[in-house]
Design brief:
The chain has helices at 2-26, 37-44, 48-60, 79-101, 106-124, 129-143, 148-168, 175-190, 194-223, and strands at residues 64-67, 71-74. It is mainly α. The chain folds into two domains: 2-74, Arc Repressor Mutant, subunit A (Orthogonal Bundle), CATH 1.10.10; 79-223, GntR ligand-binding domain-like (Four Helix Bundle (Hemerythrin (Met), subunit A), Up-down Bundle). β1 and β2 (71-74) form a beta hairpin. The protein is globular. The relative contact order is 0.12.
């Protein structure tokens, strides 16, 4: 009976985590805004227990800050946070893509390029599923590294970076340009060329960083 109860609590916590994570990444819950427990209890129609657990996990991933006096609030976005997030991503994702280049098969290549086609279609239709497909592509690529530690660390960085990527999209370039960048990473890895795969990945992430920092600095100037 205890196991059933624990599974039920875990499922509710997972649901709460998914809902709150989506609200933060999409900007529905803005940076710096409070995440009031009772409001989320009513919004999600569940008890406070799974929501507290979700907030604890979001704090670990850097999306939520908590303090004794202010309670939980969405983590602020800043140039320093953006810089640190992408600096670490560059190193870890470069490692992952180099390892992926050692094991990628033709089937892996076709699967990843298929996801890119789905992403392109969803992006052109401005469908919200594009973000999830984009994540599936990158995590599917990094899974080929075979590294459990990279797969533990990268999703945490990814969630925080997604807030900045959303900010950057209006000036990030066309869908076709972004697709070419993704294809270049996959084709290099599929060819067994870790140096070129890393170069393509670093170029891709740097383009996203440059657009995000430009938008963020503009927002900071507008707020002054």
């Amino acid at each position: 009976m205890t196991n059933v109860t624990n599974r039920g609590a875990r499922t509710l916590a997972d649901m709460a985590l998914a809902e709150l994570r989506q609200a933060i990444i999409s900007g529905e819950l803005a940076p710096g805004s409070p995440v009031r427990l009772q409001e989320q209890v009513e919004r999600l129609s569940m008890s406070s227990v799974p929501i507290r657990e979700a907030l604890r996990l979001l704090e670990r991933s850097g999306l939520v800050d908590r303090s004794p006096h202010r309670g939980a609030q969405v983590a602020e976005m800043s140039a320093q946070d953006l810089n640190e997030t992408y600096m670490i991503r560059l190193e870890l994702e470069s490692m992952a893509v180099r390892l992926a280049a050692e094991s990628m098969t033709e089937d892996d290549r076709d699967r990843l390029l298929g996801l890119m086609e789905q992403y392109a279609d969803a992006s052109r239709r401005e469908d919200a599923s594009a973000r999830d497909i984009h994540a599936q592509f990158h995590m599917g690529l990094y899974e080929l590294s075979g590294s459990k530690w990279l797969l533990r660390l990268l999703p945490m960085l990814w969630d925080n970076a997604e807030r900045y990527r959303r900010l950057a999209l209006p000036i990030r370039g066309t869908t076709e340009e972004r697709i070419r960048e993704h294809r270049a990473i996959v084709e290099a890895a599929a060819a067994g060329d870790p140096d070129e795969a890393e170069r393509a990945l670093r170029s891709h992430l740097s383009n996203s960083f440059d657009a995000a920092i430009e938008r963020l600095r503009q927002q900071e100037e507008d707020a002054e």
